[in-house]
């Protein structure tokens, strides 16, 4: 029996502290209100308290902590993006990821695996070379490798894909990793809580008040009204609704993103394997399950329903690449709401409404950015201006037609 469980068994006092403080009521006012108790919102609260000494912070969550996209993703971490803005941003995130378990004193099961993005066509291979050069220019470990390298490191793979879509090569990204998603939310939440931040679950935001001068004045919730001059929205697929509360519009659209997991099996696949042509990606967890996903569902929908059509098509594509999995059973599937932008890059920083900050547009790549999002958004809120790493993700870039085109590195949901 684990020692932690034995302590509970033998003690009537239950000496282990709760992970988070349960607050009975909201305070009348806070310096900062963060909407969304997922990874991004909790990370921002954590860094506001730890790095900037801003502790009169309230995090509001209409459901439960980590119950949105943070708990519905496939946990892949990488920085092999296409634009200089994206590469520098995600590389800083990978650096932060590597120290998080020690920061939290909590095992996040962070595991560096290596990441293969397969190229099935000449044009895809050209894009991989492009990405590799951009990555190396910014000090990120990426290189184009051939079929022999892939076969040696990805056992069971059929590089000819049954003769339909043969693999020509791949972009290999050595720092590619996975981590336990719910532990990330718990770690940031506990760290923020211990520094004085209040986390209020089951508390829905009903409206955001803006005064005549165009500045945030307060937040109306299902448990009362809060006075505040600063609000950070980190609500992923619920972003369009929150923007409407302050009279803002964005080009964000929301699509379901589904994933599924297999029964556990003996570990055999160490790296993460992605195919943009087959629209699949797969990694194996420490428990032996295969975590698999695909591209976005093609329709807009503010919902998290899962479909048999997804499982059928993803399974067929997986068997093209790994025919050895024909006997493996699928045990669970789920969906999240992906908030997509036209240029496949996020929207971060100040907005035209003074005091209202936005962390959104994460589509299919939000989990890997959790640490750097929290750190840069905390800095942005504390200083009232965008951190240098997020200037390329400004809210007004769409009106200026100055897009940050990441589609070549983010077009598959991973």
Q: Shape, please?
A: globular
Number of domain modules: 2
The radius of gyration is 22 Å
Could you say which structural class the secondary elements and strand pairing correspond to?
A: alpha+beta
Numbering strands along the chain, what is their spatial order in the largest sheet?
6-7-5-15-16-17-14-18
For this entry, give a set of tags.
414 residues; FAD/NAD(P)-binding domain; 29% helix
Write structural notes for this entry.
There is one protein chain. The protein is an alpha+beta fold and 414 residues long. The chain folds into 2 domains: 26-73 and 182-251 and 343-410, FAD/NAD(P)-binding domain; 112-175 and 253-340, D-Amino Acid Oxidase, subunit A, domain 2 (D-Amino Acid Oxidase, Chain A, domain 2, 2-Layer Sandwich). It is built from 10 helices and 20 strands. An 8-stranded mixed β-sheet has the order 6-7-5-15-16-17-14-18, with helices on both faces. Strands 9-2-1-13-20-19 form a 6-stranded mixed β-sheet. A hairpin with a 4-residue loop joins strand 15 (272-275) and strand 16 (280-284). The longest helix has 21 residues, at 84-104. The mean pLDDT is 94.
Helix-strand blueprint:
Elements lengths: L2 H8 L21 E4 L3 H14 L4 E4 L15 E2 L6 H21 L6 E2 L2 E5 L2 H16 L5 E3 L1 H7 L15 E5 L3 E2 L2 H14 L3 E3 L4 E6 L5 E6 L2 E4 L3 E3 L5 H7 L7 E10 L9 E4 L4 E5 L5 E5 L13 H14 L8 E11 L6 E4 L5 E5 L9 H14 L23 H4 L4
Parallel strand pairs: 1-2, 1-13, 2-9, 5-15, 13-20
Antiparallel strand pairs: 3-8, 4-8, 5-7, 6-7, 10-11, 11-12, 14-17, 14-18, 15-16, 16-17, 19-20
Helix pairs in contact: 2-6, 2-9, 3-9
